[in-house]
Input
Amino acid sequence: MVKSYKELVKTETKEYFLPGNSSCAGCGLELSLRWTLKALGQRTIIVCPASCTNVVVGLYPKTAMGIAGTNMAFAAGCAAAAGIRTGLKARGIDDITVLCWSGDGGAYDIGLQSASGAAERNDDILYICYDNEAYMNTGTQRSGGTPFGAWTTTTPEGKRQHKKDLPGIIRAHNVPYVATASAGYPNDLFEKVTKAKNMKGFRYIHIFAPCPPGWRYDTNLTVEISKDAVKTGMWVLYEVENGEFKLSKESANLVDKSKRASIREYLKKQGRFKRMSEDEIEELQAWIDHNWKKIEKNQK
Ligand SMILES: Cc1ncc(C[n+]2csc(CCOP(=O)(O)OP(=O)(O)O)c2C)c(N)n1
Ligand code: SF4
Ligand SMILES: [Mg+2]
Output
């Protein structure tokens, strides 16, 4: 039974991603990392490929990271995490979660080969991609996770390609656990991270994590936009546990297209979609509907 957000706030009072970090107001990465670490607890080692995370946690001795960890070169994230796990094992230590925490640029693009290697070997690590749909730390360049039609500095007229199905790619490695989550549903995220913590082998969680400056929206809208993405069916919450696919509560009733909210509501709140034409909006809608057809088949 997933606890409500109100219940969790009362019980999970310990902070591991500390206040005073330098993330922007309304940062989805900040919210996601905070709840992830609450679920994982102190006995966690975090490996962070180059991203906003390296910057917002700050430098020792003033770091906002309340657990042990290291920054890492983009391409080596999962390889480094797997190496740390092997070192711990050699010393007989088995009660520490090794977490590789990557942005979408790191996960979709530059770190994909080391993630694929670790997944194929079923290395005993937790891999999380927080997806703000562009390379934000360097000023919003497009990544494989940027959606069709979105403005970035390298797609000034809107991206021409659709978002890559990264959770699907990781799933194809037949790993024990793949899940999607969202900064807008911290209780669902907390539950999934807790479940992954208690499993062995390669576990993957993909978190939808909005970014106000990069997506061009007001900082108070992060949770609303996260929820809109789920309600429109643009972002689907699900788990694949030992090969078994299951839609999560918030997405479970959206297989019927008439239950999904209009994509226009989601798009119009964000400046990055301002340039989209009617034809482009329809193309994006068709892509969403096509994804849901695949989900319907998955469930059968
Ligand atoms: C090989 C390499 N290329 C480029 C950079 C510069 N760089 C540092 S962080 C970053 C953006 C990372 O994007 P993402 O993984 O999506 O994380 P975000 O910044 O969005 O949190 C880039 C391009 C780098 N550190 N190493
Ligand atoms: S640029 Fe975006 S992801 Fe980076 S700290 Fe600011 S809000 Fe967070
Ligand atoms: Mg990013």
About this structure: The mean pLDDT is 97. The two ends are 24 Å apart (CA to CA). The pocket of magnesium ion (ligand 3) is lined by residues 103-105, 132, 134-136 (CB under 6 Å).
